Amino acid sequence: MVESNRNNAIASYQLKRNPFIDHPEFADRIYSFVTNTIRPTAAELEVLPTSLPFDSTIISYTATKSIYLINTGSAELIIDSIIISDQRFYISDPITDIEPYSLNKLEVNFSPDSIKTFFASLNVFTNAGNKQINLTGSGKENTVNVTDKFRKPATFALSQNYPNPFNPATRIQYSISSRQFVSLNVYDVLGNLVARLVNEDQPAGSYEVDFYALGLSSGIYLYKLQAGSSIQTKKMILTK
Length: 240
What we know:
By secondary structure, the chain is mainly β. The protein has helices at 2-14, 19-22, 25-34, and strands at residues 45-48, 51-53, 57-58, 63-71, 79-84, 89-91, 102-110, 117-126, 129-140, 157-158, 169-176, 180-188, 193-202, 205-212, 219-227, 230-238.
């Protein structure tokens, strides 16, 4: 992304672009023309997001959020271990290695045991180096607000993603009025399915999900929410 922005800036002044930044596959082709040596391979680790703040969570309850471990390299990414500095934050997913140009979704849980704010670090150790994600969360009492029972229940709604335009991540929020089987999918302008974000039975309430457009081209994409017979679709723009 940094190289792409630099290329755009140079082009605005010199009216010239570096084709190897816009089209990195050219380098692979030239490499194959000039040598018979096997191109070196290596795994590369990226983590999104780089920090994970949890909302206030009732003591002894559990909140869950997701991070994505991404292998942007051309060799298998081997995860040696994942260590979290505070036991109130933990992961329940099995740790698996990641194929080249692939990603794994990792669920991080937070279960506070007192009324205070907690800070921790999640460290990922791999054959491509290490990454640290900062975690924060706070505990609160389980109090009941009398006005809660008079609140209007959630309605079926799909919000505009934010940020929009985006690169490479954006967040989609939605709500459903009753327990339904919910699907939230992303399509290109030709109607081809490019990502399945939600595909499960959910109770009434409000939800949010992050979409990471890895490996997708710039352009307009559609995201469609369906809960029972209710359907809503919105547009979003990916810029690279």
